[in-house]
Amino acid sequence: MTAINERCLELQQPSTPTDKKCSFVPSKENQPLVTSFRDHALATIRDIEELGFLGREIGICPYYASRSAIRPSEIVTLPYPLLLQKSAREVLGISLKGHVLIIDEAHNIMDAISGIHGISVTLAQLKRSRAQLGLYLQKFRNRLMGKNRVYVAQVVRLLDSLAGYLDGKAGPMVCALHFKKIAVLSNKSLAS
Predict the structure, then answer these.
(1) What are phi and psi of 147, to 5 degrees?
(2) Which of 2, 29, 128, 179 has its CA 20 to 30 A from that of 115?
(3) Cα–Cα distance, 126 to 161 (Å, whole number)
(4) Mutual orientation of helices 48-58 and 31-43 as an angle, nearest 10°?
């Protein structure tokens, strides 16, 4: 799915030749198609597959054309990532103020938040980062002053601690460090 999204974005870049651009993305030239899509989308309740079919039938991208149907809608359904990220809501023109928010499958919301604001880091990535930071320190050791030297040393200790934990060489309490938006995923539980 990521490859499709990347290719879609690539086809919209100003540097893409006009004859190679995606002809289904809404523009000034195909605004009547967007309006037609919006009107058909609002006429009956449709699921995502039906909106996809409608987009193909009309000849417009349903993903982008559906944005025109958000403001006049009484009910908008969307996946957790679009609901939970302020930047995504702003792009879609969705405001939570003065609206009723119903969360289906709310028991999954913590996993959704973790998925949005977390990352996965492998032991190999940690070791590679530590090695690169070691080279950086060798090269710039004499130029680092005060707080910068302390910050780099803290990152080194963090990388060493995380790598040690994932490698099984350290106890579980080593990972009780100050991270706010990093989730380290391994076969081990951080709570063990």
Answers:
(1) -60, -35
(2) 128
(3) 10
(4) 140
Is there a contact between 23 and 12 (Cβ–Cβ < 8 Å)? no
15 phi/psi in degrees, rounded to 5: -75, -15
Q: Are the beta carbons of 103 and 112 closer than 8 angstroms?
A: no
Q: Residue 39: which of 11, 58, 13, 18 has the closest Cα?
A: 58
Residues 65 and 33: their CA atoms lie apart, in Å, by 9
**Tokens 């009780």, residue located:** 176
The residue whose two tokens read 């004499």 is: 142
- What are the boundaries of each domain within the chain? 1-77, 78-117, 123-175
Query: pLDDT tens across 80-139, in order?
Result: 888 888 888 888 888 888 888 888 888 888 888 887 777 888 888 999 999 999 999 888
* Burial category of 144 from C-beta neighbours within 10 Å (exposed 0-12, middle 13-18, buried 19 and up): middle
Identify whether the C-beta of residue 11 lies closer than 8 Å to the C-beta of residue 21: yes
**How many angstroms separate the CA atoms of 38 and 65, rounded?**
7
**Ranges of H-type helices in 70-122:** 80-84, 86-92, 109-117
Consecutive H or E run containing 64: helix 62-65
User: For residues 169 and 126, is the Cβ–Cβ distance under 8 A?
Assistant: no
